[in-house]
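Feature request, filed as a ticket because there's no other form

It would be nice if the structure record came with a short human-readable summary line next to the tokens. Right now we just get the raw output. Example of a typical job, pasted below so the devs can see what we mean:
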Amino acid sequence: MLTRILVAVVLAPLFFVVLFFLDSIWLAALVAAICAMASFELLRATKVAHHNGMYFFTALAAAAIPVGCWLGLGYLMVPMAAVFLMLTLFGIAIRLYDEERAVRVEDVFMCMFGGLVIPMCLSALVQLKCMDHGQYLVLLPVICAFLTDAGAYFAGVFLGKHRGITKVSPNKSLEGYIGGILSGGIFLLLYGVILQQFAGLTVSLPIMAVYGLIGSAVTEVGDLSFSLIKRQFGIKDYGNLLPGHGGMLDRFDSMTFAAPTLLILVSLIPAF
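Raw output as currently delivered:
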């Protein structure tokens, strides 16, 4: 736990520097790097063949999508990346068919997930940054993703009685899940108050609470979804890049669900 906290203490200020003091291209570059590493970890964890360039092409597509969103070409970059991956990956599979190094169709689909779906979702952070008051909007999914996890942990430790709600995470309790969702609503309410007091924004606190409750619920589904993949492939973590946290995908798995959800909510019912 101490190592986990120390890593967070080091990385959090770096993220805030990128978010508040640097141009949005730096956030796009950061998200691109996260997406590339997350796709690599996913393919390695799911035992996709690594000897035929599939990791490289998947990571390349994953990194291109956030940059395309920063350029305002997200509507074009995603289909371009999809066509690139389909042609490249199926081309490799066709060439190696019925050989010793043959590529499974399910490997191709896993590459499509890692190279398209994950970066499409995480690119919501770049899109939020490019909106009015973008630096404050980006923190919405960040608060949901990270503080929901903390709220669920402490609620589970101190109040958890009904465990085994899902076999994917049998140690997590119903009280933990509820505590996580309530934490999201409470912390985004507090965030709204802070924005009103110190950023001079007019904020709808009820809408902020809605953001928190929905965002946190989705965050927990995201965490369980990527835990399901780990359970099916018999691994504890996706990697060891971040001591105490696991791999990049271990840290940003729930963000993959939270970021696009908050982007949708902000677009449909803006709070400020």
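Something like this underneath would help us a lot:
The chain has eleven helices and no strands.
The chain has two domains: 1-130, 133-272.
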